Amino acid sequence: DGGITQSPKYLFRKEGQNVTLSCEQNLNHDAMYWYRQDPGQGLRLIYYSQIVNDFQKGDIAEGYSVSREKKESFPLTVTSAQKNPTAFYLCASSPGHLGNTIYFGEGSWLTVV
Amino acid sequence: SQELEQSPQSLIVQEGKNLTINCTSSKTLYGLYWYKQKYGEGLIFLMMLQKGGEEKSHEKITAKLDEKKQQSSLHITASQPSHAGIYLCGAFGGSQGNLIFGKGTKLSVKP
């Protein structure tokens, strides 16, 4: 089945460690997005990519990094510079232009211990 | 930058009652999306609106995009416990390709 797969679903990290969240899509979508969700905050855009080998910062990019080496993959690294990384992370993809449905993964929970 | 403001932030209704959720944009909307979510899970696509004045319905949920394309409303008729969740509106921030969301409206439906 086509869709977006995020892994892992749950992840624990010690302070000072980097961690990478995986996002893979087999929808042949050009655009991919990473969001962070905290209670009462809705979805805040971290990074987005409209094409392979290109990406732009969203509203809260500090402490995060991404890569887009392949069309189907858009991993997010939460670095030790992120002050408050405990949150729910959502990945999304779309064909990349207006008028198309945007699809979301099931999300990943990151807890810093 | 474009911002989406949703109101109300939370809503508690008795089962069977109608309700409306609003999404107001600081700039002209070029496509407005409505999603439903249970916190900690993925987003479920409800509908997308593009044209000013457009209205779409799915089961008991109706969404409209106003003529000036800066506000959308989501109306639920005869609410049921299955409608409970967080409703989020999303839009593209102009031509930049960044997809932004409102903070969401938490809906609770009392049996």
Biggest sheet layout of chain A: 7 strands, mixed
Give the total of beta strands of chain A: 11
Order of helices and strands of chain A: EEEEEEEEEEE
Shape of chain B: globular
Biggest sheet statistics of chain B: 6 strands, mixed
Measured as a percent range, the helix fraction of chain A is under 10%
Distance between the termini of chain B: 41 Å
Poorly predicted sequence stretches spanning 5 or more consecutive residues of chain B: none
Key traits:
heterodimer; A: 113 residues; mainly beta; 7-stranded mixed β-sheet; 4-stranded antiparallel β-sheet; 51% strand; globular; B: 111 residues; 6-stranded mixed β-sheet; 5-stranded antiparallel β-sheet; 11 strands; 55% strand
What does this structure look like?
The complex is a heterodimer of chains A (113) and B (111). Chain A has strands at 4-7, 10-13, 19-25, 31-38, 42-51, 54-57, 64-66, 76-78, 87-94, 103-104, 108-112. Chain A is an all-beta fold and 113 residues long. In chain A, a hairpin with an 8-residue loop joins strand 9 (87-94) and strand 10. The radius of gyration of chain A is 13 Å and the shape is globular. The termini of chain A are far apart. By secondary structure, chain B is mostly beta strands. Chain B has no helices and 11 strands. Chain B starts with a strand and ends with a strand. Chains A and B meet through strand 4, strand 5, strand 9 and strand 10 of A and strand 5, strand 9 and strand 10 of B.
How would you briefly describe this protein structure?
The complex is a heterodimer of chains A (113) and B (111). With 113 residues, chain A is an all-beta fold.
Explain the layout of strands and helices.
The complex is a heterodimer of chains A (113) and B (111).
Chain A: E1 4-7, E2 10-13, E3 19-25, E4 31-38, E5 42-51, E6 54-57, E7 64-66, E8 76-78, E9 87-94, E10 103-104, E11 108-112
Chain B: E1 4-7, E2 10-14, E3 19-25, E4 32-37, E5 43-49, E6 55-58, E7 61-65, E8 71-76, E9 85-92, E10 99-101, E11 105-110
